[in-house]
Design goal:
The protein is mainly alpha-helical. It contains four helices and two strands. It has helices spanning 2-27, 55-61, 67-80, 97-103; strands spanning 48-49, 107-108. A two-stranded parallel sheet has the order 1-2. The radius of gyration is 26 Å and the shape is rod-shaped. It holds the Pfam family HHH_3. Residues 56-76, 87-106 form the Helix-hairpin-helix DNA-binding motif class domain. One of its GO terms (molecular function) is DNA binding. Residues 1-25 form the signal peptide.
């Protein structure tokens, strides 16, 4: 019985503390404002042209692309001609949707 009382008292105390924090933030106007998401301006992103980039550039500029995947991209381009869309990168062995999504803003096919 003492454990139940102690647990109930502890829960009540924690509820009051968290409510106080929420009420304090609401009076300051902070609760209504969502957190700002910082995004890098598109102008500052160095673009990687899939049709001209060499292994070293692909490897250094793209996330999740090591030497083997960079070589696979170049080999695919040499075998199939220039990329016609960024999504065509999914046809390269070892490149999946997650890797493409991580790098999509950096990729171009000019």
């Amino acid at each position: 019985m003492k454990k139940i009382r102690f647990s109930a008292l502890l829960m009540l105390l924690l509820s009051c503390v968290s409510f106080t924090d929420v009420a304090s933030a609401a009076t300051k106007g902070e609760a209504a404002k969502p957190a700002a998401v910082q995004q890098a301006p598109a102008e500052n992103v160095a673009l990687v042209n899939l049709n001209t980039a060499d292994v070293a550039q692909l490897q250094s500029e793209l996330k999740g692309i090591g030497e083997k995947k960079a070589e696979a991209i170049v080999q695919y381009r040499e075998a199939n001609g220039p990329f016609t869309s960024v999504d065509q990168l999914l046809e390269v062995k070892g490149i999946g949707k997650a890797t493409l999504d991580k790098n999509r803003e950096k990729l171009t096919i000019k």
